Structure formats: C-alpha cells, structure tokens
Amino acid sequence: MRELIYYSFLESADTKRAFIEENRDRIFDVFKEIAERVKRGKKILLCGNGGSAADCQHIAAELVGRFKMERRALPAIALTTDTSILTAVGNDYSFDKIFERQVEALGEEGDVLIGISTSGNSKNVVNAVLKAKEMGILTVGFLGKDGGRLKDIVDYPFIVKNFSTPRVQEVHITLGHVLCDFIEGYLFSYEKYFPPFGEGVDR
Ligand SMILES: O=C(CO)[C@@H](O)[C@H](O)[C@H](O)[C@H](O)COP(=O)(O)O
Ligand SMILES: [Zn+2]
After folding, report:
1. Can you tell me where the transmembrane regions are (predicted)?
2. CA 182, 159, 194 angle in degrees (round to 5)?
3. Which is the closest atom of ligand 1 to the Cα of 119?
4. Phi and psi dihedrals of 84, rounded to 5?
5. Residue at 161 is within a domain
6. How far, in Å, are 16, 46, 52 from residue 185 at the CA level?
7. Structural domain contains residue 78
C-alpha cells in the first residue's frame, strides 16, 4: 500500500508531464481563442459527469469569483448544478439531454462549451457538443483514454492519453486552473503576458 501511494503521485506527475509536452502549443492557441471570446463578452459553458461535474463547477467558480486577481466577474456557467433542471430534463426527456437542453437555453453564438469526459463517450456531453456546434458555439473537449467519440466531434480535443480515470481527471483540473490563470492574464495583465515588442512573443 505504501507503493500505491507513492506510485500514484509519480504516475500523476508523469501523466501531466507527457500531456504538456505533447500539447503546449495547441493549449496556447486554444486558450487564446477562448480568452479572446471572453474579452468580447462571450461566456463559457461547462459540462461533465461525476468528478468532471465537480471540475466544471470548480472552473466556473474561479471565473465568476476570483482566481488570483482582483478583477470583474467573468461569465462562466457549470451546467451540472441546477438540480431542478437536471431532474426535470432527466425525468421528462432523458439523462442524455440534461446538458443539451441547457446549451439550447443558455448558449449564444460565439460562446465556448467545454465538455469534460475522461472516456470521451458520455452521451449527455456528446449531445451538448452537437447542439453547441449547431448554434455556432466553439467546442473544446477535455478528454482522456483514446478520446472516445468526442475527439472527432469537438472543435478542439485535448486528450490525456492514460486509461486511469483519476489520473486523467488530475490533468483536466490542472488544465482548467491554467485556463483561469491564462484568461486573467490575457484580460487584465495583457501587457505583461503579451508585451508590445517584436513578433513571436508567445507567453
Ligand atoms: O470521479 C470519478 C472517477 O474518478 C467518477 O465520478 C467519474 O467521473 C464518473 O464515473 C463519470 O460518470 C465518468 O464519465 P466520463 O468521464 O467517462 O464522461
Ligand atoms: Zn474522480
């Protein structure tokens, strides 16, 4: 059991390292696109199940509240929190529709939907993404394992290539935290992160 504890931490660290080495340029490009949309007054919607539902709420809370900086509130909604909507839509339609229906109700063209799924196969997330695409909403997948169905549906898939659900989730929440950091920097310390000298300044 001592080994379990120690190797779980090492595996988590290794999974994060492998993910960032493979995705660092794409993350920058996609985060910039998301931040630009928030700057233009668009919002971020998030959906996912179980631990990923918790991640959605965590990320939305950082943006609506505060991450590291005192600044205005930023628009982000976790579609995982309203138990009346979740039970009504789940009961009257289907559990597969619980996020799709909220995307239809709350989403607007130009918004961003982040779907979080370690398998990439949760039907309620797939349906939400399909609805979002129909509505002109940018779709980003925080995925895992082999990316599942969502890797071929979202505009921008990020796949944590590990078959352990918790290890994948640990990278997802790091990605979510870094997104919050990036958005704060992009909107409120732009000069610091994007100094106005020369081409190729990318941090
Ligand atoms: O947190 C965990 C496992 O670590 C679970 O609650 C897990 O999120 C649930 O089984 C989800 O239903 C898995 O869905 P998904 O990630 O495959 O979309
Ligand atoms: Zn978990």
Report:
1. none
2. 20
3. 17
4. -70, -45
5. yes
6. 22, 21, 25
7. yes
DSSP state of 128: H
Q: Which residues are annotated as a binding site for substrate?
A: 49-51, 62, 91-92, 117-119, 122, 169
Provide the H-helix boundaries in the chain.
2-39, 51-64, 83-92, 100-106, 123-134, 165-188, 190-193
Instruction: Tell me how far the alpha carbon of residue 85 lies from the centroid of ligand 2, in angstroms.
Output: 24
Read off the tokens for 37. Answer: 């949309």
Does residue 203 fall inside a structural domain?
Answer: no
Confidence class for position 203, pLDDT limits 50, 70, 90: very low
Cβ atoms of residues 172 and 142 within 8 Å? yes
Task: Output the residue whose Cα is nearest ligand 1's atom 2.
Answer: 51
Residues whose CB is less than 8 angstroms from the CB of residue 22 and which lie 6 or more positions away in sequence, other chains included: 161
Q: How far apart are CA 202 and CA 26, in angstroms?
A: 12
pLDDT reported for residue 189: 87
How far apart CA 43 and CA 60 sit, in angstroms, is: 10
Residue 201 has pLDDT above 90, yes or no: no
State mean pLDDT over 87-105: 98
